[in-house]
Amino acid sequence: MENNNKTDSSRILNPLKFRAAVFDSMLSEDTGYSNYSYWRSTIRTFFKNKAVLALVVLIAAIIVMSFVYPMVSDVDPNKVSLFITDWNQRPSAEHWFGTDTLGRDIWARAWYGVRNSFLLAFCIALSDVGIGMIVGAIWGYNKKLDPIMIEIYNVITNIPSTVYLVLLAYIMNTSYLTLFISMASRGWIVEARFFRNRILSIRDSEYNVASRCLGTPMRRIATKNIIPHIISLIIMEAALCIPYSIGSEVFLGFVGVGLPVDAITLGNIVNHGRASFTLHPYQMLLPTIILCIITVAFYVIGNKFADASDPRNHV
Amino acid sequence: MSNNGHTSPKIFSAQDVEIKFNLRGKVLTALRGASLDLYEGETLAIVGESGCGKSVFTKSFIGMLDKNGSITGGKIQYRDEDLTNYKTEKDWLKIRGKKIAMVFQDPMTSLNPVRTIGEQITEVITWHFGTEHEQAKKEAIEILKKVGINDAEYRYKQYPHEFSGGMRQRVVIATAIACRPEILICDEPTTALDVTVQAQILNLIRELQRELKMTVVYITHDLGVVANVADWVAVMYAGQIVEYGTVHEIFNEAVHPYTKALLQSMPQLGIKGHDLYSIKGTPPNLFKEIRGDAFAPRNADAMDIDFEEEPPVFNVTDTHYAKTWLLHPYAEDYRKSLDERDAQIKQEKKAAEPFNYTDAEKLLEVKNLTVKFKLGGKEFRAVDDVSFDIFKGETLSLVGESGSGKTTIGRAIMRIYNKVDGQIIFRDEPITGKLDRQKKKKLHMEMQMIFQDPMASLNERAKVDYIVSEGLYNYHLFDNEKDRLEKVENIMREVGLSSEFASRFPHEFSGGQRQRIGIARSLVMNPDFIVADEPISALDVSIRAQVINLLNKLKRERDLTYLFIAHDLSVVRFISDRIAVINKGRIVELAECEELFAHPLHPYTKALLSAVPYPDPDIERNKKLLVYNKDMHDYSTDKPVWTEITKGHFILANSKELEAYRKEIEKQG
Prior knowledge:
The complex is a heterodimer of chains A (315) and B (669).
Chain A: H1 6-9, H2 25-29, H3 38-48, H4 50-72, H5 106-141, H6 146-158, H7 161-171, H8 176-203, H9 206-213, H10 218-255, H11 266-275, H12 282-308
Chain B: E1 10-23, E2 26-39, E3 43-47, H1 54-59, E4 69-78, E5 81-82, H2 89-93, E6 100-103, H3 107-110, H4 117-129, H5 133-146, H6 152-155, H7 165-177, E7 183-187, H8 195-212, E8 215-220, H9 223-229, E9 232-237, E10 240-246, H10 247-253, H11 257-264, E11 314-315, E12 321-322, H12 332-348, E13 362-375, E14 378-391, E15 395-399, H13 406-413, E16 421-426, E17 429-430, H14 437-446, E18 447-450, H15 464-475, H16 481-494, H17 511-523, E19 529-533, H18 541-558, E20 561-566, H19 569-575, E21 578-583, E22 586-592, H20 593-598, H21 603-611, H22 617-622, E23 641-646, E24 649-653, H23 655-668
Helix pairs in contact in B: 4-5, 5-7, 7-8, 8-21, 15-16, 15-17, 17-18
């Protein structure tokens, strides 16, 4: 406490300043203002990591390429050659990644494959997250549904997915729709349980109780009070769903119940390449690289987005 | 006196400490040159609103600042060690816990939930002293006994969740004193606890301090606690110590306008029927550079100079100093005129007449209300056979500790639970069970609720405009968009907020402002009856006064009736007409406000009253703590009944107790 009054002797003060000032009550109210915005902070935190930025650019490039290439290129990915010299060609200026056992251009097939696989995965992600969210919301809001839903969840998740994926694909003819149904019939319940847990934790928070006191109808509680709070989770879950679906499609192709051989998907190309892997390993190169990039990138992006959307990480 | 009134040697000194945080690309100056000295064996309390830098200041003493913060100026010295040179965790561990220990607000977060409490204390001892495990265990049990935990050997093996809140805080204190630190910093040690437990914890810390000769630093915003424990008080505002002095000097002769304002806004010192003194606005945003006196924009009596130059420190006495221009010789006349005005205002105020119950009409009747919850398969009664009436125009307060069922009663009246037993009658119509749409709408328009936590009760992702007009949308209570906007604007003005705020999101507001938005949301329905569920307990002292004044103003202007739920008897006295005291789901006593304070009968009410902190050091230090124990009652054969013992004074007691109470009343005359 070495305080003294020496500071003010060095300064000249105006005695007239020692009078009451005008009080502005709005000035006092505004001091607490902060310019935090949830979405702005989320996106800034998300892109702060340069690796994430690179992956997003890469994924965007792959997707754009897979849609643009079929439009501009005149190479037919299904064109089978009858000349043995066209088969199993090494990479060259004409065929950048060589040709497969039937003389089809692998570079062209890979982009068609990415497009088809991605569209399929996107549809599955949409149905899984979409149905899962609706069911999860109803489940979370109705305590009475709990015992039934838990049983359904147990039954569906405890049967190994391969068993009924194979069974469904066997009963129905192999087609995109079959594949879609067999994969979408399972994913929704996992998502539903995930959303049910999240909704349960915000259902009883005070602002929701307040809405009930005001008599807010269910529809508006869902659209205004619940969905805006879990929208970042929805995006994250959808992002994580895509690599899983692509992976499943590849796996089904691998066990032989995937799509018909004339459908061009990443699964079929990888499978085809695998058959001749010992003699012509380069045939698997391009499709597997793209598959790896898509899978890893979506996982990383999904997880990083989950981190970025948590307000605790907004520093 | 060289030591400025301190009798023991100085052990710690912080000089002009400046701390900056990087937050989302901006720099926040949390401490703007704060200085403080600690002397052996003393008790210092640091007070101020939240966001004034109290916690940051003390955390810097033990190197526990968040990662994005750093000390950018000043010096922190403990004995001969310069702590500003400490860089690594290893350096800090020489001091942290061992010499300077800290007790935090929430006992649950400072204990590890998956390890027994004994292990956690033993670990501290072996870690710092390298004691053998067996020896450390013995010491740990000793310490547990010392902090007042019965059956310490058995409790040693238990996990934190097996302890109640107060017991947990005792364990946290045990871990903090395990190394016999010289300085103990208690950061809001009792804020999360009930009043009766709070008083016990404060007593415990005081006893330990005497025994271990520690220096204790309290960080608190509760001036009642300060009056109880502190020898010295430092008042902090906007990252600076603005006033420092002995506890009597601060409470009786405060000079800084901020200290005065804090003291005046205590509801205990308010006079019924008049507005409580309140500090306008919120603490300053420390992202901006502060010019002049930081408190000036909120100080209605600020001088021109306060906006231009930062005041230096002026000594009032040897032990008392303050940082305000009011102490400058030029300001002497102005200061005198302010003092005279304050004294005059105090004299003119007279308490309002008590509420007239003789011809009051019943608005709400609660009859034998019971609410049951299922907890782990077992049924438990949160509210057990409770009956009371609420008259039109009164404020009935429901006071009890956490878990007593007071919020449950409020929510049962608001029809939030699907199933309750008993009857609730509003305007002669029962409102329990299923109702048709028309009746529901009518109830939503007549009955509204205000919530406790302003942080949780507003939808973060919706604009204030939507939040306030939610009720209007639900029942389409407006003609067109223009009419709706007008209604929102009017209600915002009524709660004292600028109508421009409507386009912002809730996170841009401070606690007090958010609470007012919550009030606006319920008022937009034009209700007659409001259940206010602890609307002020999550707020700072200064902000409390704003909200209490607003509630009182609305009551006068709109002729409202309140059911006010609270845990703090002292706040309730200022605003309520009648008080009901609730314990473990049952109302034990109900009487008119002054009657209850003058003649409390039930032992639980007496215990609550004795524990309430009062912002006056002389009263606080002489008070006697009463402890309530439910074994006091022998209800095995003689069951308690809800009886009106004198007119308007109800009590829950059996015939034997009633007789004793009657005698007590006679004796008091």
